[in-house]
Amino acid sequence: MNNKTLLSTSLIILIVLSAISCGRHKKDYILNEDFDSNKLGWCEEFTAAHTTEIKDGFLYIKSDDTSRQQTSNGPLNRSFLYDFPKNYEITSSIQSLGQFVPKHYYGIILISGSLTYKFEISDSSNATIMATEYDENKDAETYLISKTWEDFGTDSLPVNFKVDVKDRAFEFYINDQLIGTGKLKTKNFVDVRLFTTSGSSVKVDYLRIKKVE
Q1: Mean pLDDT throughout 138-145?
Q2: CA 44 to CA 38: how far, in whole Å?
Q3: Mean predicted confidence (pLDDT) in 189-205
Q4: Residue ranges of domains in the chain, CATH in brackets
């Protein structure tokens, strides 16, 4: 085998291996939403209460009605939640665009049959980071994590969220730093949403759910 043939063979093997690796990587993601289009049917509305739209590769959420707690948005097509894995990782990059109230929160909402979980951060130099569980049956909210991060400096910078779940035990990360741990009381969800509290606006770069070993 001459050098030219050997080089061609090596290139073919490299391409095949790359294709296999790429295929496996894509299969790992049960949701890989980058907001380049609206194939999943995210709500886009322009009302006195809020503005929600997909534009320039971002999901924008603006909550104007201060009589409400928050504005949230989720996809109409939630088939990716079927046959949900036991171990998974949820990640998102969210940037605050400002507010006209003293402090606001934004982040990820996970909803099951009667439970709602929020993973959120406040927009301030001394950020408050929380994970909460609301039980509809008890009409009660429990703080799973509550932590103040001094000199966080979230102004005008995207914040990277990660919730790493293994058999219902979760680790909550902000910008790759572990904030705290807890345990979910559900194996799966009926809805995944992104939110910001009233009097504020955010833009979301991506939302991903990845199956992990």
Answers
A1: 96
A2: 9
A3: 95
A4: 32-211 (2.60.120.200)
DSSP 57-122: TEEEEEE--TTSSEEEE-BS--GGGTT--SEEEEEEEEEEEEESSS--EEEEEEE-SSEEEEEEEE
CA distance 35 to 83: 24
Please, what sign has the CA dihedral across residues 104, 107, 110, 111?
positive
pLDDT classification of 27: cutoffs 50, 70, 90: low
Q: Which residues contact 3 (CB under 8 A, 6 or more apart)?
A: none
Within 10 A of 126 (CB to CB), how many other CB atoms are there? Answer: 12
Residue 63 predicted with pLDDT over 50: yes
Residue with tokens 């070993």: 213
* Cα 168 to Cα 54: distance, rounded to the nearest angstrom: 32
pLDDT score for 9? 53
